[in-house]
Amino acid sequence: MANPQPEKTSDSGEFGSKEHSKERATDDASVDSRPEDIHPGTWKLFKACPILQDIPVLGLVLKAYSPHLVIAVFVERLCVKGVAHGFMRLSVQPMLTNRYGLSGAPYQRLSSLYELGWSVNSFFTAIADTFALFGYTKRWYSLFCAIGCGVFALLYALLPAKESSAKAAAGFMFLTALFLANVDTFAQAIYSRRIRVSPERGPALVSWGWGAAKLGAMIAAAVQGPLSDHNVTQVGVYIVAGILFSLSFLFIFNVFDEKPNRVARLQDARADYIIKKREEREAQQLEEHAKKPTAPKEPAFTEGREASLAPYVLKNEEEDDLEGFVEPEVDSVLWGVIEINKEVVTRNWLIIIYCCLNTAAVVATAVVTILGTRWDMMWACVAMTIAVCGFGFFMLPLIVAKAGTFIYLFNIFYLQLPGVLNTFYVAKPKCLPDGPHFNFTFYNLMNGIIGNVCSIIGISIFAHCCQNLSYRAIMGSSAIIIPLISMFDLIIVERWNMYIGIPDHAMYIFGDAIIFELVDMLVRMPTFLLMSRVAPRGSEAMVLALLGGIAHLGKSTSSAIGYLLLETIWPIKTKGNCDYHNAPWLVIAGHIGAPLLILPLAFLLLPSSRVSATLDENGDEVEEVKVSRSDDDTSEGSSIFRTSSHSSHSSHSSSHSSSHSSSHVSAGDPFVGRREHNAM
């Protein structure tokens, strides 16, 4: 009698031992017990360390997104927008005034080039969205920009320490900012696709990213201040170069898990096709209902409030929606090195043209800033405003144009005055005997530490308290807060605090340089969230870069306007025997009076929707209905969203009224389709 064949061990995986079967049964039971609102990749992490669920912001983010993505977002934002951007931003004043010997007005003029550098990235993202490099639209471009940023940072820091090097240094500063902005924008575009899938946790993920950025900014402030006081400001720039070179490994190993270009294009095409089919079916149902109002026909698609009762759409219904679907063709050249996304160009050609015009305007402004006269700068500001606010309404989706115009004007109406306030606070006793006499260590620490603590407070407020508020309410409130906190700067400049016995150091903590960081966060995060939800699919990087570029362009234009005021109406003197008697008028005009115009702009240009709501391409709130997906764990899911304002029907009436309904599809996090079945 033949001996019985022994069971395969669990290592083989072919038959499995009894122990292996028990383990699998236990794992299945554990997975089945997972709450549907927790990401499957996070469930085991929460079981091993339950306290993570109770950590503010982090707990919310981990519930909706994979730990892999959460860590990648933290590292990128910490290093790029936090540490690297912090070192560069805090190095501008000591590098231009101390190392290269510029006075107040020329410093204000050339310092605007750093903000201009953050305004050009929309052109590069348009190139990236159109021409995928080695199969990816963001990954390898990010690597190239990280290396380029490190190279130009070194050139910026290694120039001879004399005034004749100032303009060349400003040019390298511009290029460093340009490549740094591209790295940050490409990374944001990757995870913005995930926000579309889990919009209810979108504010938490945005808050998580900004929290990491602010932590990095505090680290940079703690280091850069002492370096500047010891006249070795360039060391901070060397650190920036090292960070960017090291960060390149983040993209070499694809830590963000960016999907290949062909996969992303297929998902977007499927989503567009499903929307089209369901709109056609809904229109047909409405037409049939109009002809037979008493027919007790059950609609195939759950509408209106009933949509919230439908946990999922059956998989065979999704397959019916995809009947006749043809996969999009992606052309490639140079033996597959470059893939051309024609549908991105044909669908968003006006946005691409706008990005090119915006880039040309920024480059022209940069040249004028370095080589032109004050009047050349004035006309450049006028042309820039017309280009951003005028052409935007002809070339961009309406909601994107409105948001971009608001952000641009918001930054203009809060006038940038670094040549006045920055030089006033750090002026030496020989220059300004009765001044505050801050050193760079205190000045940078207060701006970097307390200012970023206020930013983190703003982040927490936004993540936990603002989800049911509208974009108008959150961003319009800045028109009231900014003038109030700017009064503290006016008090210090007028020296009134000395008459009542309050030291400059104590009064400065309550000024707008500190508290404004909180307000700034309450404007930036809703804007990013808004664009993440309404950006055309496949063009997230382009739209996000465009809006971010417009924000920095507004700051640069604001700084140029401040320079013109310094040169013409309210001049000051920052060298020798300093003269700041016009500084109060600049503060009153730029920080108290002009920001009041932000409030009507918010109600005119921003949607009235809640920040936690899912939006369609017009900025209207829509309800979400899940669409099942295949069992492929590596593919991203998709969701169909429809407006809650549908036509009302009556079984006793021969007529019907309907309101316009719109649809929105998003693709992103890979666990969306599993929530409906509680399979994990």
TrEMBL record:
UniProt entry tagged with the keyword Transmembrane helix: yes
Residue spans crossing the bilayer: 140-159, 171-191, 203-223, 235-256, 349-371, 377-399, 406-425, 445-466, 473-493, 505-523, 543-565, 585-606
Stretches for region Disordered: 1-35, 617-680
Annotated localization: Membrane
Alphabetical UniProt keywords: Membrane, Transmembrane, Transmembrane helix, Transport
Keyword Ligase included in the entry's annotation: no
One GO cellular component term noted in the UniProt record for this chain: membrane
Composition bias type Basic and acidic residues, residue spans: 8-35
Chief location of this protein within or outside the cell: membrane
InterPro entries cross-referenced by the UniProt entry: BT1 (IPR039309), FBT (IPR004324), MFS_trans_sf (IPR036259)
Domain of life: Eukaryota
Biased amino acid composition, Low complexity: 644-664
Topology relative to the membrane: Multi-pass membrane protein
Family designation: Belongs to the major facilitator superfamily. Folate-biopterin transporter (TC 2.A.71) family.
Database matches in NCBIfam families: fbt
Protein name per Swiss-Prot or TrEMBL: Biopterin transporter putative (BT1)
